[in-house]
């Protein structure tokens, strides 16, 4: 997405540079054409003045100079006709240039519209980047909480395993003592009352250990259920946040 944003920004800058170059060329061409038109108008006016002066001179000169003046006048008229033709050509060229400039202005307007579209796309892309970064931060927070719950569950599981191991050792020890007492009871029938009391005590201790073990197993199951519920809620929240 950042690469697409960079591409849009680069295209935007290139279009702006192209528009500026075209505007500079358009201004330079307009100035050049205006200068040519002014120069030709001035030259035409000067030639007309010269023609008028020559016409007056022809009327005032003697008949001997009339033919020479007529030839000079014809030359001047030919020059004027040539200049008029050039002026018309320049006017046509100016008209074509104005048409081209109008087309360039239309193209420039289209490019500006395209630049506006690219600006809007760039703004939307940046907003999407910000939104995705925010969602990523939220997801990272959820992941950290899930990892914390996993660590807590692992610690609880280790503690439960240690307690279970201790309970097994105690149970084995108590069973061993119980077997020893039973053997003594079998060997010594007269001392059966005291051995029976010891066996009852051992059975009571076994029941207490069993109850504690069951309580620990229930607590472990409760924590596991809570962890699964938390993980499901976090996953649902992350999935909902990732939907555009």
TrEMBL record:
<comment type="similarity">
    <text>Belongs to the angiomotin family.</text>
</comment>
<dbReference type="Pfam" id="PF12240">
    <property type="entry name" value="Angiomotin_C"/>
</dbReference>
<dbReference type="GO" id="GO:0005923">
    <property type="term" value="C:bicellular tight junction"/>
</dbReference>
<feature type="domain" description="Angiomotin C-terminal">
    <location>
        <begin position="142"/>
        <end position="242"/>
    </location>
</feature>
<feature type="coiled-coil region">
    <location>
        <begin position="80"/>
        <end position="226"/>
    </location>
</feature>
<dbReference type="GO" id="GO:0031410">
    <property type="term" value="C:cytoplasmic vesicle"/>
</dbReference>
<dbReference type="GO" id="GO:0030036">
    <property type="term" value="P:actin cytoskeleton organization"/>
</dbReference>
<dbReference type="InterPro" id="IPR051747">
    <property type="entry name" value="Angiomotin-like"/>
</dbReference>
<dbReference type="GO" id="GO:0030334">
    <property type="term" value="P:regulation of cell migration"/>
</dbReference>
<protein>
    <submittedName>
        <fullName>SFRICE_035138</fullName>
    </submittedName>
</protein>
<keyword id="KW-0965">Cell junction</keyword>
<dbReference type="InterPro" id="IPR009114">
    <property type="entry name" value="Angiomotin"/>
</dbReference>
<dbReference type="InterPro" id="IPR024646">
    <property type="entry name" value="Angiomotin_C"/>
</dbReference>
<keyword id="KW-0175">Coiled coil</keyword>
<keyword id="KW-0597">Phosphoprotein</keyword>
<dbReference type="GO" id="GO:0005886">
    <property type="term" value="C:plasma membrane"/>
</dbReference>
């Amino acid at each position: 997405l950042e690469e697409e944003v960079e591409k849009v920004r680069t295209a935007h800058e290139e279009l702006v540079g192209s528009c500026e170059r075209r505007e500079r060329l358009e201004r330079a061409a307009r100035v050049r054409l205006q200068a040519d038109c002014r120069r030709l108008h001035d030259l035409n006016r000067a030639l007309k003045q010269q023609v008028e002066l020559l016409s007056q001179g022809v009327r005032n000169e003697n008949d001997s100079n009339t033919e020479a003046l007529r030839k000079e006048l014809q030359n001047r008229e030919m020059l004027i006709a040539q200049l008029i033709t050039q002026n018309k050509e320049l006017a046509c060229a100016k008209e074509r240039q104005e048409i081209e400039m109008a087309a360039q202005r239309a193209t420039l307007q289209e490019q500006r519209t395209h630049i506006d579209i690219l600006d809007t796309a760039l703004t939307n892309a940046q907003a999407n980047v910000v939104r995705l970064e925010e969602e990523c931060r939220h997801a990272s927070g959820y992941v950290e909480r899930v990892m914390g719950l996993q660590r807590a569950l692992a610690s609880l599981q280790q503690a439960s395993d240690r307690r279970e191991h201790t309970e097994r050792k105690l149970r084995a020890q108590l069973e061993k003592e119980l077997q020893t007492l039973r053997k003594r009871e079998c060997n010594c029938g007269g001392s059966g009352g005291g051995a029976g009391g010891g066996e009852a005590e051992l059975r009571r201790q076994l029941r207490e250990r069993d109850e504690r073990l069951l309580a620990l197993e229930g607590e472990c199951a409760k924590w596991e259920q809570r962890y699964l519920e938390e993980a499901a809620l976090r996953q649902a929240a992350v999935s909902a946040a990732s939907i555009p």
